[in-house]
Amino acid sequence: MTLKSEIENILNQARKDISSCKNLSDLENLKVKFLGRKSRFSELLKRIGKLSSEERPIIGKLLNKSKSEIENIIEKRRNSFENTVNNSEHTFDITMPGRPIEIGAKHPVFQVWEEIEDIFISMGFEIAEGPEIENEYNNFDALNTPEWHPARNLQDTLYLKNGMLLRTHTSPVQIRVMKNFKPPIKIISPGRCYRNDKPDASHLPVFHQFEALVVDVGITFADLKSTLDSFVKRFFGEKIRSRFRPHFFPFTEPSAEIDMLCINCHGKGCKLCKNSGWLEMGGAGMVDPAVLENVKFDSEKYTGFAFGLGIDRITMLRYGISDIRTLFKNDLRFLKQFV
Amino acid sequence: MKISYNWLKKYIPIKLSVEEFCDKLTMFGLEVEEIINLEEKFENIVIGKIISISKHPNSDHLSTCLVDIAEKEPLSVICGAPNVGKNQTVVLAKIGAKIGEIEVKKVKLRGIKSFGMICSEKELGLSENHSGIMILDEKFNAGEPISKALNLADNIIEVEVTPNRPDLLGMIGLAREIGVMIDEKYSKPKIKFQESSQLTSDAISIEIKNPKLCPRYCCRIVRNVTIKSSPDWLQQRLRAIGLRSINNVVDVTNFVLMEYGQPLHAFDYDKISGKKIIVRTAKNNEQIELLDEENYKLKQDNLVIADAEKPIALAGIMGGMSSCISPKTKDIVLECAHFEPKNIRTTSYLMNLESDSSHRFERGTNPNGLEEIIDRAAQLIQQVAGGEICKNIVDVYPKKISPQKIFLRTKRVNDILNINLKSEKIKSFLQKFEFTISEKNNDFEVTIPTFRPDIEREIDLIEEIARRYGYQNITSTASIPQIENRQKRLTLRAIKNHLVKLGFFEVCNLSFSGTDVFEKLNLSNSDFRRETADMKNPLGEQFSILRTTLIPDLLRNVATNLSYKFEDFKLFEMNNVYFKKDEKSFLEKTFLTGTITGKFNSEYWNVHPDKPSFFDVKGVVESILEILHIPKITNYVKSTEPYFVKEQSADLIFGDEKIGSFGVLSDKILSKFEIKTFTLLFDIDLTKLLKHISQDEIVYSEVIKFPPVLRDIALISAQNISVSEIEKTIKSLNSEIIRSVSLFDVYAGKQIEKGHRSLAFRITFQSEKSTLTDNFVDKLFDKIVRKLSSDYKIKLRKK
Ligand SMILES: [Zn+2]
Fold first, then answer.
1. Chain B closest CA to A206's CA: distance in Å?
2. Interval B90-144: pLDDT, tens
3. Where are the domains of chain A?
């Protein structure tokens, strides 16, 4: 048998076998049989080198042509199988999962942070920021904190070796803003703050808070109450009221502690609110005239209010997280719940 | 509304240039939309006399005219109008004249040249009439510019009158308003005429069946008029504002409409059956043919003016054909009435009929002062059409509409506007608007004339005072300071959102660190990250400094999560790091650090991701730069960071500045953090990166309408020639046409010469100006091949 007729035979056999094959796996076997490394075709290809120089190009060409024809009919047969698979009601399983699109998530503290920013932006506030490493003046003196105040102690505040400190609240941002801008001022300053606390279920040396500050002509305690109330309602829902209790802060006068109705029991009393019906949220008050004078505002002309709330605490309340350390373990089993 | 500046000046002296005047009008609340200088508009348009006329040899409807325009020779002009004829005085637009937007040029029409154009009124913008060419009185001289002949040296001011101000839809109302604006007195026309002895009430009776829809109806009768065309002055006035002249009587009613803003109608007295006018609602299925020559079926809520038998007008909207003024009309009945706006609005809307009349009635006309207006019309009719005016007005006004009173507080004015006006000043402003005032302890009781239906409350009066005072004179209060860095906030959020969409989880670690991490990261002793802020009273050894890099915490997070059996995951942290600047101060910077552990996407039944590589993390970094619209001045060089696999890492360089680095973490580093899975890292100094964000966001350019041509090129190139170099070289050959060069295949190994690789690029060619020809692209393609061959010894891969 000449080489030429042998190639012809293989081709014919391939045509017959491929057209009569029944399924995809048979087809794969046929592909190996006709085109695989151990196929007749491969053998013939190896033999090409031994042919005469006249025969070599002719047979080479024929082999290549036949090979691509077999590839073609295999491909066509495969397509016909795949189409029947697609058309077949029995083999097409729509309950199989769709192509997964992996979506991540922002950290829950930052999700809450952004939501707070957005609520205040919608109420006409701007976002202000400042450094975390502060001097004692901005963190305490300018805010009317007396020399003897325990907050200044090494037991309460983290100091750097050169005498600067890690801010204990974002109030220094207020001082910086008031030094650089004239009223009307309407800002919130969210940021990272520090205190000398050993980590436990409710304390970390790092925490996130935001403070609101409004200074203008004619700002009153009533404005403070309405602003805080509006925020709490927008964030936690219409039913959550807030209340103010007299308190002491060096930088506000009159000062107040803010409570909001327990989001769990709505005032009936439960474990979360230790049966009081109220949750402690933070501090507030009218900016002390001394603070305004420190930044050279006319305290007769301008009045202002300020309040501060913890972002971590709000996050924990919203999601019912009882241990603050859970927030910063960065465990994907936790983080994946916030997609 | 179109205002003729010349006409307006008849009622009020204005010494301003038309531009200055229009600026003031706009700032006063009457926005000027367009000023048309008629002299300029009618340049090269002159009076012509048709000397002779002949049929166009190649057309049935065209004529060839010889037109005398007092030049050396008459012009030969082709005209297609049906009413063209010999000896007519016409308007001729010479070559170079502009008709609307179109310039008149010498043209050949069916083989015969035409040297101009004979115009219709519509073409000249003088009216809507387009039934034929405009034919003028023969008294005009050939060659005279029509702006002069027709007294059109005027400016037409198109003003937007807001719908609450019907009083401004007439010259006198405008003059009153302008008087307030420029502190001038305006004047009304003097009305004086003789009445005949016949009583109007003897000649006609009026009955209003529905006084709610028609609170007032006045009429006068003028007998023995001569209907003819109007005198020039009247035609010119109407023409200037785009109204067509019809006949002397109708023109007068239109003139007075434009003068007072009050619509009038003239009926042919002889056609009024029963000599009786009844204002009533239509009977079902009643019909009327209106002046637009259309038949209308009426409904019960349509108000009509009827005679003893039938409707003769659709009240306030349009007159009827049956009683219209014709050349034979001898005696006329003039109507001047007040209709309820809502009914007119509804009827006009439902019948899809609009007129100058309905436009005013539906906005609310003044019910009082109709006597003056009807007298003005009677006087003018007598002046232009002759005749005798019957004695007295028949005026049916069952329930007089009285002016409203509004209380205005001086303090309230000043509080709302934050100004300090004395009550005398407010008083003088109000008087200019023709409000009647009685003062009460610095406040006012203001009587609002009925021509101002828009003034209903105190606040409406305050608006008038504010307009007169001038909005520009009210000083704004302290501006609200821009405190926040909005762009920074939005950018950082955008980056986070982007990474989240790519499947990254954000982590948040505390700010403290121990000093042991520098050894773990293999940092040299001079590394900038060793410039730390040291704590005086740390909580422990692992809290002794503030962190200068986010990498160690993040790698700890990776190790923890691997221990929870997560295999493929991506984390990032965006937080501050803190450096010691000098003994007294510190530097806080925001960093973005991220890791890709395992495969970029998890294995799934229909997802079989490739082995993870350097290019996965590079893709993430590039996508961040892309969403920030950072121009491609980025440069990548081999990274000097000690924690990466040397060859598979890069530093990101902008100009001379290193912005960050990314790459494959070395096994040595990973093992120090007890990570056994392949992990990629990127670490970007956002504080530096933010400085490179362009302010001008997205620059839109029009989509290119010519199709692109795509060509693939397969090259054999030495391994040491970088892909970016090849891309740059290709682009440099014609950066306008070569839009993109994108790598789609890389291969090295069998069949490829040692030390070489095969690279396949797809090149997109596209021009903004034309469709590229194959020939052009072939030539450019050859140029690319030659350039690569001569500069880099890169060869085309043979197929
Ligand atoms: Zn509770």
1. 6
2. 999 998 888 877 888 888 888 888 899 999 888 887 777 778 899 888 888 999 9
3. 3-90, 108-338
CA-CA distance, B13 to B5, in Å (whole number)?
11
Q: What is the pLDDT of residues B39-69, one digit of tens each?
A: 888 889 999 999 999 888 888 888 889 999 9
Indicate if the pLDDT at residue B478 is higher than 90.
no
Going by C-alpha positions, the residue among B451, B434, B430 that lies closest to residue B363 is B451
Is pLDDT larger for residue B704 or for residue A115? A115
Residue range B2-38+156-182 in CATH 3.30.70.1050: no
Q: With an 8 Å Cβ cutoff, are B500 and A106 in contact? A: yes
Cα A281 to middle of ligand 1, angstroms: 14
Among 3.10.20.600, 3.30.56.10, 3.30.420.40, 3.30.1490.20, what is the CATH number of B404-473?
Answer: 3.30.56.10
Q: Which tokens is A195 given?
A: 């205190």
What tens digit of pLDDT does each residue of B555-567 get? 999 999 999 999 9
Question: Is the alpha carbon torsion for B229, B230, B231, B233 positive or negative?
Answer: negative
Q: How confident is the model at residue B799, as a pLDDT? A: 60
Q: Looking at per-residue confidence, does B630 or B717 come out higher? A: B717
CB contacts of B482 in chain A (<8 Å) are 126
- Mutation pick from A125, A332, A336, A338 vs chain B, by most beta carbons of B within 10 Å, is A332
For A189, the 3-state DSSP assignment is: strand
Class in CATH terms, B486-691: alpha beta
CATH 2.40.50.140 matches B43-151: yes
Domain B709-796 = CATH 3.40.50.10750: no
| pLDDT at residue B702, as a whole number | 86
Q: Quote ipTM for the complex.
A: 0.76
* CB atoms A132 and B588 under 8 Å: yes
Q: Residues spanned by CATH 2.40.50.140 within chain B?
A: 43-151
Q: Report the residue of B505, B570, B578 to disrupt the A interface, i.e. the one with the largest count of A CBs within 10 Å.
A: B505
Closest listed residue to residue A109, CA positions, set A194, A190, A230, A186: A190
Cα–Cα nearest to B595, from B560, B625, B627, B565? B560
Spell out the SS3 assignment of B436-465.
Answer: EEEEECCEEEEEECCCCCCCCCHHHHHHHH
Q: Please, are residues B261 and B174 in contact by the beta-carbon 8 Å criterion?
A: no
Judging contacts by C-beta atoms under 8 Å, the chain B residues touching residue A132 are 511, 576, 578, 588
The highest-level CATH class for domain B195-396 is alpha beta
Which among B537, B561, B576 has the least Cβ separation from residue A154?
B537
Is the pLDDT assigned to residue A126 strictly greater than 90?
yes
Which element (helix H / strand E) includes B216? strand B216-223
HSE-CB of B371 using CA atoms within 13 angstroms: 9
Q: What is the mean pLDDT of chain A?
A: 90
Q: Nearest chain A residue to B504 by CA: give it.
A: A104
Q: List every span in chain B annotated with CATH 3.30.930.10.
A: 486-691
Distance from CA of A160 to the nearest CA of B (A): 4
- CB contacts of B493 in chain A (<8 Å) are 114
Residue of B nearest to A128 (CA): B484
Q: Which residues of B touch A163 (CB under 8 A)?
A: 536
pLDDT digits 0-9 by tens, B347-356 = 999 999 999 9
Q: Give me the pLDDT at residue A138, please.
A: 95
User: Which three-class secondary structure state does DSSP give residue A277?
Assistant: coil
Residue range(s) occupied by CATH 3.30.70.380 in chain B: 709-796
Is B170 within 8 Å of B363 (Cβ atoms)? no
Condensed to tens digits (0 to 9), the pLDDT of residues B683-722 reads 999 999 988 887 666 778 889 899 999 999 999 999 999 9
Under DSSP, the state recorded for B282 is P
Report the length, in residues, of chain A.
Answer: 339
**CA of A52 to nearest chain B CA: how many angstroms apart?**
24
The per-residue pLDDT for range B587-603, each reduced to its tens digit, is 999 999 999 999 988 88
Note the pLDDT of residue B34: 92
A194 → chain B, closest CA residue = B511
Q: Which of B483, B512, B560 sits opposite A181 (nearest CB)?
A: B483
- Residue ranges, comma separated, of all CATH 3.30.56.10 domains in chain B are 2-38+156-182, 404-473
Specify the CATH superfamily of domain A108-338: Bira Bifunctional Protein; Domain 2 (3.30.930.10)
